[in-house]
Amino acid sequence: MSNTILKKENIDTIETQKKTEPVLMVSHLYKSFGDNKVLIDFNLKLNKGENVVVLGKSGSGKSVLIKCIIGLLLPDEGEIHVLGENVVEQTSSSLDKIRAKIGFLFQSNALYDSMTVRENLEFPLRRHWIKNNPDEVNQLVQQALEDVGLGYTIDMMPVELSGGMRKRIALARTLILKPEIILYDEPTTGLDPITGKEIIRLMIHIKEKYNTSSLIISHDMNCVKLAADRIIILLEGKCYAEGDYETLRKDKDAKVIQFFE
Amino acid sequence: MIKKSVANNIKLGAFVIASLIFLIMIFYMIGKNKHLFGANFTVKARFENVQGLKIGNNVRFGGIDIGTVKKIEIINDTLMEVVMTVDHKLKKILRKNAIASIGTDGLVGNKVINIEANRLPDHAAEENDILLTQKSVNTDEMMRTLDRTNNDVNIVAENLKIITQKINKSQGLWDLITNRKIAIHFNKTAENIEKASMEANKIGVNTNQIIRKISNGRGILGKMISDTLLYSNFNQTIVNFKKAGIRTDSFLLKAENMINNIESEINYGKGPIHALLVDSSNTLLFKKSMLNIEKGTEGFNEIIDAMKHHFLFRRYFKRIENEKIKSGNP
Amino acid sequence: MPVSTSTKNLLNEVGGISSFAGRFFSQWYKPRYEIAEFFRQCYVIGYKSLPLVGLTGFIMGLVLTMQLRPTMVDYGVESQIPAIVGIAIIREIGPVLTALIFAGKIGSSIGAELGSMKVTEQIDAMEVSGTNPFKYLVVSRVLAATCMLPVLTVMSDAISLYGSYLGVNIRGTTSFSLFWIQVFESLDFYDVIPAFIKTYFFGFAVGLIGCYKGYFSSKGTEGVGRSANSAVVVSSILIFIIDLLAVQITDVLGYN
Question: Does ipTM exceed 0.95?
Answer without folding.
Answer: no
